[in-house]
Amino acid sequence: MSDFINQIERRRTFAIISHPDAGKTTLTEKLLLYGGAIRMAGSVKARKTAKHAVSDWMEIEKQRGISVTSSVMQFNYGGKCINILDTPGHQDFSEDTYRTLMAADNAVMVLDGAKGVEAQTRKLFHVCSIREIPIFTFVNKMDRETKDPFELMDELENELGIKSYPMNWPIGCGLNFKGIYDREKRVVRVFKGGNHGQSKAEVSEMYLEDEATKEFIGDDLYNKLMEDIELLDMAGEDFDMEKVKNGSLTPVFFGSAITNFGVQTFLEDFLTITTPPLSRMSDVGEIDAFDKEFSAFVFKIQANMNKAHRDRIAFMRICSGKFEKGMEVYHVQGKNKIKLSQPQQFLAQEREIVEEAYAGDIIGVFDPGIFRIGDTLCEASKKFKFEGIPVFAPEHFSRVRPVDTMKRKQFVKGITQISQEGAIQVFREPHIGAEELIVGVVGVLQFEVLEYRLKNEYNVDIKLERLPFRNIRWIEECNGEVSSLSVTSDTKIVEDLKGRSLLLFQTDWGISWALEHNKGLVLSAIAKSE
Length: 530
Ligand code: G4P
Hints:
By secondary structure, the protein is of the alpha+beta class. It contains 14 helices and 33 strands. The strands form eight sheets. Strands 28-25-27-26-30-31-29-32 form an eight-stranded antiparallel beta sheet. It has a seven-stranded mixed beta sheet with strand order 2-3-1-4-5-11-6, with helices on both faces. A hairpin with a 7-residue loop joins strand 9 and strand 10. Helix 5 packs parallel to helix 6 (about 120-130) and helix 12 crosses helix 13. The chain is globular and about 80 Å long. The chain starts with a helix and ends with a strand. The structure holds guanosine-5',3'-tetraphosphate. Guanosine-5',3'-tetraphosphate binds near residues 21, 45 and 143. Guanosine-5',3'-tetraphosphate binds near residues 20, 24 and 89.
């Protein structure tokens, strides 16, 4: 196998999704620990804690110039090169969280064993399921009292509509968490050591049928395990790789990230099941990851919070071929050739200049303001465009205007630029001038970032007034004029900056009402970007 093919073959690119506090940070850190990228667990966590308050976050952004370490982490394990894409959560939950999922080939969904499927899991799962990518489930916190594993599987099916196949099965939980049973190898794995999660756990394997296993687990748990296994084998789903690949069957793993129990098993099985980078759809058909020619698309643009450096970093996912430092590529939307200067890649701790990167990898390049989310870069002889990244419906809205009306021009400029980076979405009300806009965001922190940036970068103070809307829908089809739609009195008709019409709703009921009372009306929570 040529080195080129081998390099792409060994790439695995995935995002971890979860509801806050389920253990995404802890699991990421433990995967890095097993990959040798960090010696002592604790540094990913430190980064998260450092992000705690908005003011701290701004301060960090300023000092560091730009927040990049959180975007992607690369490490090697078992001959594979793994890229973990960070999906911002908590206060910094934003549209970037969704867009990052567009750059991943697989998703790992972390559930808190006691809580099961939660609100944010649902949202993120939905975005993954649109793409029909493989989704792996890690049921975390087995060292605590959890729900019954069968109940968790029912939840996956009933709440998310995905069938599950447990790759392993927990033996007890909480203080009685003894280990896991590997269904394929028919062995019980018990864990020891791990220095409270600081270092790797010691794993010993025992055969299910051995007397010593029964003795170790105890009669009650052993009998329960045997019953569970029988039930799973008889009534459970069969493992079907095709269903895993199209995201309709999720392999489920159990463990405890904090103690490292089950982490290595998960990592190894995950790497065996996942495939190398997937091909991507473009306007000239599918682009294969193993194509010799380089191609990539921009999925995230991060502004520099430092006033002295107005540049931004554009993060791109390499979709095919090989990238080499200083290489000249064609920027399709900009219609010109550009040299990708100072490309960077990110390890667990620091960023470094990359010499080469392959399909599946993420690189960040300095962007003097030429890139937009979804842009394609490829060889000049090709000039194709990857399918655009959808625009996701924001969930929080504010009316925004400059305090000083004389600053209208800077206000519009600033808000337009910030919206181009994709941090906010801007809407206009018909018959109202550009000095008063409606801003929609996926995560509320973005309002504070907007206020901060307009003041610091554009010297504009703004007045922000929160609006009670909760849902927005693009109007895909409608009989007659949008202005004559029959809607409830608390529904507002707006336009985005591309001139598309949308409806803002305060309740879900408002949406149903609009659909019931307007024949032929088709609404969408996701807009295809062109
Ligand atoms: P997140 O990124 O998904 O938000 O979750 P994070 O890893 O930060 O974990 C949230 C909390 O759950 C943390 O506790 C963490 O230590 C704990 N946790 C993670 N994995 C496990 C696990 O397997 N078992 C148990 N029992 N707890 C787990 P915290 O109190 O918020 O922080 P800390 O004081 O422990 O640092």
